[in-house]
Amino acid sequence: MKDEFVLILGAGLMQKPSIEAAGELGYKTLVVDANKNAVCVPFADVFVQIDLKDREKIADLAMSYGDKLKAVFTAGTDFSASVSYVAQKCGLISHSFEAAMNASNKVLMRKCFREKGVPSPDFVEVSESEIETLSSDDSVLFPKVVKPVDNMGARGCRLVRNKSEFEPALRDAVAFSRTGKAIVEDYMKGMEFSIDALVHEGNVTITGFADRHIFFDPYFIEMGHTMPSSVSEAVKKNVVDVFVKGVKALGLTEGVAKGDVKYTEKGAMIGEIAGRLSGGYMSGWTYPYASGVNLTMEAMKIALGLGKTLPSEIECNAVSHERAFISIPGVVSVIYGEDKAVASPFVKNVFFRVKEGSRVDFPRNNVEKCGNVISRCADRSLSLKGAEMAVSEIVLRLEKNNESTQNYLMGVENKYEKGFPYSAYELSSDELIAFEKEVESLDSVIIGENESILIPESLASFAGERQDFNYRTILNTLDKVNKYAGARKSVPAIKFWKSLIRGGVQGALYAVDTWGTEC
User: Fold this and answer.
1) Phi and psi, residue 281, nearest 5°
2) Are 261 and 283 in contact (CB under 8 A)?
3) What's the pLDDT at 451?
4) Is residue 67 a contact partner of residue 97, using CB atoms and an 8 Å limit?
5) Which candidate, 479, 457, 475, places its Cα nearest to that of 467?
6) What is the DSSP letter of 188?
7) Which burial class, exposed, middle or buried, applies to 56 when counting CB atoms under 10 A from its CB (0-12, 13-18, 19+)?
8) What is the SS3 string spanning 17-29?
9) Per-residue DSSP letters for 175-186?
């Protein structure tokens, strides 16, 4: 290995492919992160604890390496501007700092798009001092989308459906912003796609195009993506053309670009474009699985001055699905099913963000998901089935007598989040009336490994078909409740069934633990 280094910003899981790529190319890794306990710290040749926001300190470190430092790199972090700042200080290859800032600050981004005629939503920038005035302005029409100007992972991002939700959404967005500013945008309705691209000498090569699966408004939670997309070639061409136009409008010329683009009734419109590779397991996992191409290594070659070595057209010869698993609110006491998830057909990876003792919540941003499963197969349907089966095997049992869990099971809502959080099984109004009337007349449910639970008639017609947010039917859920409940217990029927419908297997096990009595 050469005594030469690649400086990598970030030591989280998303940086693992970067560390591996540098090593395979024969370089040592100099890794910086504010968290000295980040998961990839042990794999760095040299680790230095520095906050990624501290560009000057990172630049001082980089320049201390002199000619031994050959590239600056990141993927899946929100610090592409820090990469460009440090690279320019050291005379290394990157997007210009101005372009990287355009791709980091959503207000600058929207201004670039507006000036260059790139389709994107109308917007207004809001500082903390302007919140009260704007939120009381009767001329504002809804729905709107409110975001911090400079964050990622959908932190502080939400759909505002009416005036009563506006002020609290603005305050949340400002709180999540490093610069204390929010952006208010017109809402774009339509299919959403993620794109990764290499950019060399101003030329854009599309390397990944995936369907994004977004749920749980008023928030935008990505419950997975699918690589490659199943959309028509005509739609894909429109989305790619607008994305490339957006990349050029931002001034990104040397490195990589990542885009979130929607296809609306007006055609493709840009959600955002970043001057880095995607996070969310796309650039480092699902794209390599689907295409056979190590995208991180190809991007690093550009940063090292080796140019672009990929052809312009890269065909995917397989399909890769990434799917998230989530939790209802509470504290994790036991985790079941990891071994079965890992062993599920076509599953390549199972990643956990939580462990026993972790506080969990119904996600309001993508950081609050509990973990992810990634599958790969030449057959699209088998890859999907493998990912969903793996997710369905993972059960996060919650501690009993927990206020946040009980509030959720009782349907307690924040007045600015009407309809959120969601129930595991959504019933129509007629189904709900019939269900509640039936379970109120029942006495108790006996739970145990060898027990056969009689399903209420009001649920029977869809108990084997309708799935919760972790791909479990009611029948699947009952099997897991009996399996993991422990000692044979009697649970008040109304508490058991309402907890199951509201919270799935987690709600049912919570009812067993909190209100069950051994029998």
Assistant:
1) 75, 10
2) no
3) 66
4) no
5) 475
6) P
7) exposed
8) HHHHHHHHCCCEE
9) HH-TTSEEEEEE
Closest CA to 28 of 307, 306, 304: 304
DSSP strands (E only) in 63-110: 69-73
- Torsions phi, psi for 484 (to 5 deg): -100, -5
CA distance linking residue 31 with residue 4, whole number of Å: 13
Cβ atoms within 10 Å, residue 143: 14
CA separation for the pair 90, 158 (Å, rounded):
39
Helix, strand, coil share (%) of the chain residues, nearest 5:
35, 25, 35
In the numeric block, the tokens 């109304």 are attached to 494
- Specify whether the CB–CB gap between 109 and 149 falls below 8 A: no
Give the pTM.
Answer: 0.94
276/197 Cα distance (integer angstroms): 9
Contacts of 21 (CB under 8 A, 6+ apart): 294, 296, 297, 300
419 contacts: CB under 8 Å, gap ≥ 6: 413
Q: Which residue has the tokens 């009407």?
A: 418
Quick one: tokens of 59?
Answer: 């630049």
Length in residues, the chain: 519
Q: Within a 10 A sphere around the Cβ of 460, how many other Cβ atoms?
A: 11
**pLDDT given for residue 76 in this prediction:** 83
Is 257 within 8 Å of 205 (Cβ atoms)?
no
Q: Could you give the angle at the alpha carbon of 272 between the alpha carbons of 269 and 278, nearest 5°?
A: 125
- For 321, the enclosing helix (H) or strand (E) is strand 319-325
Show Cβ contacts of residue 27 under 8 Å, excluding neighbours closer than 6 positions. 1, 2, 4, 5, 6, 70, 71, 304
* pLDDT score recorded for residue 405: 98
Q: Take residue 96 and report the two structure tokens written for it.
A: 């210009």
Is residue 161 a contact partner of residue 177, using CB atoms and an 8 Å limit?
Answer: no
Residue 127 amino acid letter: S
Phi, psi of 51 (to 5 degrees): -65, 130
Q: What integer pLDDT is reported at residue 516 of this predicted model?
A: 92
- Token look-up 């796609």 returns 193
In the numeric block, the tokens 């300190």 are attached to 57
Asked if 270 and 112 count as a contact pair (C-beta separation under 8 A), the reply is: no
Q: Which residue is listed with tokens 């994305």?
A: 243
Backbone angles phi, psi at 486, to 5 degrees: 95, -135
The CA radius of gyration of the chain, in Å to the nearest whole number, is 24
The ranges of the chain with pLDDT < 70 are 152, 449, 451
- 203-215 and 28-33 strand pairing: unpaired
Give the position of tokens 């493709």: 268
Quote the CA–CA distance of 268 and 265 in Å, as a whole number.
8
Phi, psi (5° rounding) for residue 209? -140, 110
Distances (CA, A) of 1 to 24, 30, 46: 9, 14, 14
For 11, 404, 470, 486, 514, the CA distances from 328, given in Å and listed in that order, are 29, 9, 11, 21, 16
Reading the block at residue 290, the tokens are 């689907």
Say if residues 29 and 3 touch (Cβ distance below 8 Å).
no
